[in-house]
Write a structure and sequence with these properties.
The chain is elongated and about 55 Å long. It has helices at residues 5-11, 33-51, 57-86. With 94 residues, it is mainly alpha-helical. It has 3 helices and no strands. It has one domain. The structure holds zinc ion. The site of zinc ion has 8 residues, from loops.
């Protein structure tokens, strides 16, 4: 039986910007501990920015957080790609 789009969404990592699949879709919402930590960081910063919205530094805090998370997403994507290309006989991802 082939996967439907709904099944695909269900097995997708919950973090915005991550396209990896969850390794244990039945018990984990993220593909990795790193994504879980990044999602927690984003939620925490978002909450702080909302609670301290009159502080102009929250704009820089939010911008810096999004840039850092985007950079880590790119590191993971490039690492996976280069690792896969160096291991053509293997089916597992790092
Ligand atoms: Zn992920």
């Amino acid at each position: 039986m082939s996967a439907t789009p709904l099944d695909y969404r269900r097995s997708q990592c919950r973090r915005d910007g991550c396209t990896r699949k969850r390794r244990h879709p039945d018990r984990a919402q993220f593909c990795s501990g790193l994504c879980a930590d990044l999602d927690a960081l984003l939620s925490k910063v978002e909450r702080t920015c909302r609670e301290s919205s009159s502080n102009p530094a929250t704009v820089e805090l939010w911008t810096s957080t999004v840039e850092a998370v985007d950079a880590i997403t790119q590191v993971v994507r490039l690492h996976s790609r280069i690792w896969r290309e160096s291991q053509p006989d293997k089916l597992l991802s790092p």
